Each structure stands twice: as structure tokens, then as C-alpha cells.
Amino acid sequence: MGTYKYETSIEFKYYWESLNNFESYISYLNQIKTIYELKPKTVLEIGVGNKLTYNHLKQIGIDVVSLDINQKLNPNYIGDIRQLTFESNFFDLICAFEVLEHLPFSDLEKALQELKIFKSKKYPLKTIKEALIISDIEEEILKLFEEWICLKN
I want to staple 122 with a disulfide (CB 3.0 to 4.6 A). Which of 66, 67, 92, 131 is the partner? Predict the structure, then answer.
């Protein structure tokens, strides 16, 4: 996990060079497939990385808006998952792939509260759970996620 100073210092080139590999492409495929199957018209992507998912969604006609804390990555909006400023229920789907692990554990609760407040308008939060879970998520994060997003059956 990185500090604000570290996260905002990373250049786009780092993401492009470090995330263009087989393992990352499998992750992108799963992200895009999950989004595509839901057929949203509007998507908020939190954390742009190398913009592969963002660019693909744009190409297939989805109105996607990007948000990142790092202005060097050229997101549509510069902002923090812990303090979202969009109108609640504005987006059909909210995605935060490979984002939560960059937060200090002490800030996870705040981020999850924000995602609960700014939930999507079209899909139940249970659907968003799949979009937010990362491959190496820790059990504690999953428990917090389920508690704050109210996904327990």
C-alpha cells in the first residue's frame, strides 16, 4: 500500500510497462467481461492504471468516467475513493479494480462507506462486490467489505 505522496508520484509509463503482461491481461479480461455482461450505460472506474479497461469500455460504446488520485495518469477527474464527489446513483456501475490494496488499512472503512453512499443506480451492490474484489484480497478486507456494503445473505 502506498502513501498519498507515493501514489501521486507514479508516472503513467510505470503502469504501462509493469502491467502489460499475461497475468494482467487475464485480470483485464475478467474486468471487462464482468462489466460487459452487466450491460451498463454509464460506468465510474476508480483507479485508471494503464487505462486498458477504460479505453476498451469507451471503444464498445460505454460512457465511462475515470477517477484517480494521481493527475499524472490523466483521469477524467482527480479524486479519492475515500471522498467521492459525484451525485449518488448517477452511474450504472462503479468499479474499483486493484484499488483497495493501495489504501492504508485504517482508511478502508471510510472508502467502503463512500462506496455504499455512492452506489450504482442500476445494479445491486451485490453485483459491485465482484467488481471491487481483487485477486489477492485479504480476508479482513472482505469481511469489512461485506459488513459495510451489507452483502451478507
Answer: 92
